[in-house]
UniProtKB/TrEMBL annotation:
This is GLPGLI family protein. It holds the Pfam family PNGase_F-II_N. It comes from Chitinophaga pinensis (strain ATCC 43595 / DSM 2588 / LMG 13176 / NBRC 15968 / NCIMB 11800 / UQM 2034).
Length: 228
């Protein structure tokens, strides 16, 4: 009996070691975010008359899948909510779509433009926007047990955006909105129109096809799109 118990204990220990070894592979996985849209703050002046018909905020989920330095990020472009018997359907329109792909090493981003028929991939460079000013800070906070650094991004369109990014993950950059900064993975962001925060990370095997731009879609350059 003693030998049987000892064998079971050893087997359990080996199993635990194998699991821990796999869990340490952080080069691929999926980051889950909670995304909050500030609907009232996003309304245009001629839309404010309908403010009472629209909830102040809308909360949903966003995802980022990555393998190496390739990523796909996406969030629902149509959100349906029911509260107190009232149904609300909101279509989220962004300049760069709700489905994005990025190659961090080559500094390229693609977003799916579904307004075109058939849909196309719009390609752009992950270059620093000279109109945006970055202000580094010494402040840090823990998000999902990762130390995140705080920075302010001052933009003309969205005002000041607060970003919390970490360099403790192998992925060099990324967020639900593609890539906001090249300093690290963004685990939280706060702005006037939208905010998000990472609520979980699964380090699982990712098929490379999941994070690569669809091969059957036509790729157009940003300049080509703006010229049409």
């Amino acid at each position: 009996m003693y030998n049987i118990i000892r064998i079971l204990v050893l087997a359990t220990g080996i199993s635990g070691i194998c699991y821990q070894g796999y869990a340490q592979d952080k080069t691929q996985g999926q980051i889950h975010y909670e995304l909050t849209f500030n609907l009232h703050a996003s309304m245009k002046p001629d839309q404010l008359q309908y403010k009472d018909l629209v909830p102040e905020t809308l909360v949903d989920k966003a995802e980022l899948i990555y393998k190496g330095q390739h990523l796909k990020s996406f969030f629902p472009d149509e959100i349906n909510k029911e509260e107190d018997g009232h149904k609300t359907s909101i279509r989220v329109a962004t300049e760069e779509g709700s489905e994005r792909y990025a190659d961090i090493d080559s500094k390229k981003l693609w977003w799916v433009d579904r307004k075109k028929n058939p849909p196309v991939l719009v390609e752009k460079e992950l270059a620093v926007n000279e109109e945006e000013k970055v202000q580094e800070t010494a402040e840090t906070r823990k998000i999902l047990d990762y130390t995140c650094k705080k920075l302010f991004l001052k933009t003309k369109k969205n005002g000041t955006v607060t970003i919390w990014y970490t360099t403790e993950l192998p992925l060099k950059a990324g967020s639900p909105f593609g890539s906001i900064t090249d300093k690290g993975v963004v685990l939280a962001m706060e702005s006037k129109r939208a905010s998000f925060k990472a609520i979980g990370i699964d380090f699982t095997i990712v098929d490379e096809k999941e994070v690569m731009p669809p091969a059957d879609m036509k790729i157009v350059k940003t300049q080509e799109e703006s010229a049409k």
